[in-house]
Specification:
This protein is an alpha/beta fold. Helices cover 18% and strands 23% of the residues. The protein is globular and about 50 Å long.
């Protein structure tokens, strides 16, 4: 099979990293050297960074659901599929601290990431009505351009470049990395998640994430694996 890979670097942003991020992922900065090593690679035909970029009134922010029972990390709301014009369809949405708000330093990429090597930045989560962990689709699976408030149709861009495989690293392994990888497989690409190149909001969730990847035909590989050595 042809091999024309792309790299997707997911949400390496200030708000997702210690010490000051409002939704800091433990050890999030530790993966920066590996991310930059991948960005140095000349094997990738395209290098993409994703950027959570929420309006201040985003549905996932606990601050937008006042009340003693709505707490960041702990509480859930019923979110409706307004983007897909099916508000009768709902799903449970975890509430988060305010994070990655458009135009704020928290939404900026980490200074340590070599953004000069990035070909394309996909901003996502810009529609206040719906969560969008994946760079391909919102949480309801709406795949049309603009669903969830995304700046570009990533699947169409990758197909236009004849990309066959995608390598995925970034934050967080149990949310945006997970959904991006699964949606990459749904879109017809062969996705690899480099295990050392992610960290989770809940580190204990990683085994369950890997189980979901296995069911979705997403391969988790080590940085020392043959698959990773093809691009490093």
């Amino acid at each position: 099979m042809a091999f024309k890979p792309a790299l997707i670097v997911v949400d390496m942003q200030n708000d997702f990293c210690p010490p000051h991020g409002s939704l800091a992922v433990s050890e999030g900065r530790d993966i920066v050297p590996l991310v930059n090593s991948l960005l140095e690679s000349t094997v990738f035909a395209l290098k993409v960074a994703t950027q959570d970029y929420h309006p201040p009134d985003h549905v996932s922010f606990a601050s937008n659901h006042p009340g003693p029972d709505n707490k960041p990390f702990e509480s859930f709301i019923d979110m409706a599929n307004h983007v897909g014009h099916r508000p009768d369809i709902t799903m449970k949405q975890r509430l988060w601290p305010d994070h990655c708000i458009q135009g704020t330093p928290g939404a900026d990429m980490l200074d340590e990431i070599d953004m000069t090597k990035i070909d394309l930045v996909i901003q996502k989560g810009m529609d206040k009505r719906v969560e969008m962990y994946s760079a391909f689709a919102d949480s309801f699976g709406n795949l049309t351009a603009g669903a969830g408030g995304v700046s570009a149709d990533l699947a169409s861009i990758l197909r236009g470049r004849a990309i066959t495989h995608v390598y995925i690293v970034g934050l967080a392994g149990d949310y945006c990395v997970k959904d991006t990888a699964i949606d990459a497989a749904k879109a017809g690409f062969i996705p690899y998640v480099i295990e050392e190149g992610q960290r989770c909001v809940d580190p204990t969730a990683w085994e369950d994430v890997k189980s979901a990847f296995n069911k979705a035909s997403v391969k988790v590989v080590s940085v020392n694996s043959d698959e990773a050595r093809r691009v490093l």
